[in-house]
Amino acid sequence: MKNDPEEKNNLFERNKPIVAELMRICEAWSKRNERLKSGG
What we know:
With 40 residues, the protein is mainly alpha-helical. The chain contains 1 helix and no strands.
């Protein structure tokens, strides 16, 4: 299996929606945690 940048790029493109979703979830969690901290 040769390590060509094109293949890597395709993998990244395919995983973009998953990464975006994870980031969104992380953001939601941190906002929730901040609320819990400030709200008691």
